[in-house]
Write a structure and sequence with these properties.
The complex is a heterodimer of chains A (about 400) and B (about 300).
Chain A: H1 2-5, H2 9-24, H3 31-56, H4 64-79, H5 93-117, H6 120-140, H7 142-145, E1 151-152, E2 157-158, E3 161-162, E4 172-173, E5 176-177, H8 180-204, H9 206-216, H10 218-223, H11 228-254, E6 256-257, H12 264-277, H13 282-301, H14 319-337, H15 341-351
Antiparallel strand pairs in A: 1-6, 2-3, 4-5
Helix pairs in contact in A: 3-8, 3-11, 3-12, 3-13, 4-5, 4-6, 4-11, 5-11, 8-9, 8-11, 9-11, 12-13, 12-15, 13-14
Chain B: H1 2-32, H2 39-57, H3 59-81, H4 90-112, E1 127-130, E2 133-136, H5 137-159, H6 161-171, H7 173-178, H8 183-206, H9 216-222, H10 224-231, H11 236-255, H12 257-264, H13 268-283
Antiparallel strand pairs in B: 1-2
Helix pairs in contact in B: 1-5, 1-8, 1-10, 1-11, 2-3, 2-4, 2-8, 2-9, 3-8, 5-6, 6-8, 10-11, 10-13, 11-13
The chains are: A mainly alpha (about 400), B mainly alpha (about 300).
Chain lengths: ~400, ~300
């Protein structure tokens, strides 16, 4: 691939610098920013999984939060100790994390017959049903899940080293005390890097090409010898496993799981992350996760120093309202002005070409995965000619 | 038996209101190919306008303003946003509508705040009795209005040039355009119609037995999505069938919750529509009355 991508070194050096910065950040950041970072990394893994499903393989899913919920609760249940109100298996945390991914993947596999039968928006709306069904189960199976109020989550530990404030009680690096948030930061960073690396390889390898082929034309893919049902099932399994890990990480970052964390809004947020970032782009998904997750937290934290925001409850523009509106406007602006999302814009910048004519991207191109319909006018309208199929 | 009959009537009348919303989804989808996630907010907008204006204008004029306002917002969303999408496909359009929904819903929620606005509807909280079974008058009016609305829609699509043009545009845009049908006009009509239906549905969803206009109305409009999908994406009669099925399902499941609780747990009434939707989609992937998607090789 490298000869197709041009010189890989600027990208590699840039990536290395970013990783080094991420490694050094806990030395400087306050607890608020560390917490925000944890949420961002957890969301990024979920978004990367979803971008494989929606962007690369073209299977629209509004049910990503359901798989994340399964991961979170499987982790909480399998590592938790049984109490009088909720059950628990008391397994080691690493086993819990693996189990979270495996169970989510299995549920994804169980859902794939539905996915094999439905297409495009129909599939998206069927997965929408999944969110409500899972939420219903979470509320009702309270001997496992703790019902409405949820249950607390055991902190992660690896071979006697706990990723919490104790055990070892005092750990310092370069004069900065490393507490639970600092330790989790590195755990999450390792997981996020592994997830991105794996997703990038999957996307540009044989599997990803098969997925992209299924997205572009199922008939053509079948004629090329790709098992369409198998490809769809495999992408659902992979993306659900990603969602499961993301869910378990969210549970760790919150220290608690509750059904409301994994509502329809969470599914929508995942979808917004990958669309803002650019469908099918792993880096775009990460940037999208950063934006979507950090914006409300940051606006709420710094609302006191922003002059146009009123205090909550005073009837003016309070921070959560403002962040929702900025969030909505940002979605609209990106979709109206940035072809292919942030990743598409970055690609055009790199290639220095006019905004109207993006060069064909390396690997499977993130484009029009969801439907044969054009939008804004009836199907098959003149807008079709604007497409840039490579 | 009386209880059962009451639940059925309740379900059917609620289902008719849902079908108004579902028809809005279907019309927007056939005329522009957009999955209109902002429809719930438009429903809320219509009800909000009526609630705010009725003390000064009176109920009926403010209902007209509400209908016009919702229609106008729909047309504006299509003309200003949807037609200027950078990537013209159904997926990005759906996300765009999510963005619009977030902005609209947040602003309406902020304006409404914690108050529950009343509509000042002339039927108030009165009840109509059919033998042993009683039904809120608002629901009876809703059923009547819905039947009239669907008769009107049928007339529009079957007998008028505009409606036939809309059907032609939905069936084959470029050809319809070559035959002299202005696609921008059919698209705008579709969005306007959906807005009008949404405002009417909003008024019925927020009058008795509902307490009044509150932001949660936008969420209950979400329950119309299973109704729409179940009937078929591009079918207005499908929306009626879907609405009735979903209305009946949720009324019966909620009404008999005590008996069902051991099997399905509490609060299944909210989930049942989606379960029905998934099951129907598995058997008929294009919904009950939707046209099958043609696959071009």
């Amino acid at each position: 691939m490298s000869e197709l991508r041009g010189n890989p070194w600027p990208r590699r050096v840039g990536g290395l610098v970013l990783v080094l910065v991420a490694l050094a950040l806990p030395l400087a950041l306050s607890d608020f920013w560390l917490q925000t970072g944890l949420f961002v990394m957890a969301a990024a893994i979920g978004a990367v999984g979803l971008t494989l499903l929606v962007g690369v393989a073209g299977q629209l899913s509004l049910g990503h939060a359901a798989f994340a919920a399964i991961g979170a609760y499987v982790y909480a249940w399998s590592t938790g100790e049984a109490t009088s109100t909720v059950g628990g298996a008391g397994l080691p945390p690493l086993a819990g994390l693996v189990l979270a991914a495996v169970v989510s993947a299995l549920v994804g596999a169980a859902f794939s017959p539905v996915a094999g039968r439905l297409r495009g928006i129909y599939l998206g709306l069927a997965t929408l049903g999944l969110v409500f069904v899972v939420r219903h189960l979470l509320v009702n199976l309270d001997q496992w899940t703790g019902g409405f109020t949820g249950r607390s989550v055991e902190s992660f530990a690896l071979g006697g080293f706990s990723f919490s404030n104790s055990d070892p009680d005092y750990l310092a690096v370069a004069g900065v005390e490393f507490e639970g948030l600092h330790r989790l930061w590195y755990l999450f960073l390792v997981l996020a890097l592994a997830a991105c690396w794996l997703a990038g390889n999957l996307r540009s390898g044989r599997t990803g090409r098969a997925w992209a082929n299924v997205r572009d034309s199922e008939t053509a893919a079948a004629a090329m010898g790709i098992g369409v049902a198998r490809a769809k099932a495999s992408v659902f399994v992979v993306s659900s496993a990603y969602a499961g890990v993301a869910g378990a990480m969210l549970a760790l970052a919150y220290g608690r799981v509750a059904p409301d964390v994994f509502s329809l809004t969470a599914s929508v947020d995942f979808l917004v992350m990958i669309v803002l970032g650019g469908l099918g782009s792993v880096g775009g998904a990460v940037v999208g996760a950063l934006f979507v997750t950090a914006l409300p937290l940051v606006l709420a934290e710094y609302s006191g120093s922003l002059p146009f925001l009123a205090a909550p409850g005073s009837g003016g523009l309070d921070p959560s309202t403002a962040s929702r509106i900025v969030y909505g406007l940002a979605i609209i602006a990106v979709l109206l002005f940035l072809r292919g999302g942030l990743a598409g814009a970055a690609r055009r910048l790199r290639h220095g070409s006019a905004p109207g004519a993006p060069p064909s991207a390396p690997g499977p191109t993130p484009h029009d995965p969801l439907s044969t319909h054009d939008v804004g006018r009836p199907a098959g309208g003149p807008a079709r000619s604007k497409e840039t199929t490579p | 038996m009386t209880y059962f009959l009451a639940q059925v009537l309740n379900g059917l009348s609620y289902g008719l209101v849902l079908s108004l919303i579902a028809a809005g989804f279907a019309i927007v989808f056939t005329s522009t190919g957009v999955l209109n996630f902002a429809h719930g907010s438009v429903v809320l907008l219509g009800a909000y306008l009526v609630a705010v204006l009725h003390p000064t204008l009176g109920f009926w004029p403010s209902l007209l303003v509400g209908m016009a306002g919702s229609a106008l917002v729909g047309v504006a969303i299509n003309a200003l946003l949807v037609r200027h999408l950078a990537d013209q496909n159904a997926g990005t359009a759906a996300i765009l509508m999510l963005g619009v929904d977030i902005v609209l819903l947040t602003e309406l929620t902020r304006r409404i705040g914690n108050q529950v606005l009343t509509l000042g509807a002339p039927w108030g909280a009165s009840v109509v009795r059919f033998g042993d079974v009683s039904l809120p008058t608002g629901r009876v009016v809703a059923a009547g209005v819905t039947v009239v609305a669907f008769a009107g829609l049928w007339y529009l699509f079957a007998r008028t040039d505009l409606g036939v043009g809309m059907r032609a545009a939905a069936a084959d845009g470029p050809t319809a355009s070559l035959m002299g049908i202005r696609l921008t006009r059919t698209a705008a009509t579709g969005w306007a119609l959906a807005g009008v239906l949404a405002a009417v549905a909003g008024v019925f969803l927020t009058s008795f037995p509902a307490p009044g206009v509150a932001p949660t109305v936008a969420l209950s409009a979400f329950a119309a999505i299973p109704a729409w999908v179940l009937g078929g994406f591009d079918s207005v009669p499908g929306a009626v069938v879907g609405g009735l099925v979903i209305g009946l399902t949720s009324a019966l499941v909620t009404g008999y919750e005590g008996d069902l609780e051991r099997f399905v747990g509490t609060g299944f009434g909210e989930v049942a529509p989606y379960v029905v939707m998934i099951v129907v989609l598995l058997v008929r992937p294009s919904g009950l009355l939707g046209s099958k998607e043609a696959v071009r090789v």
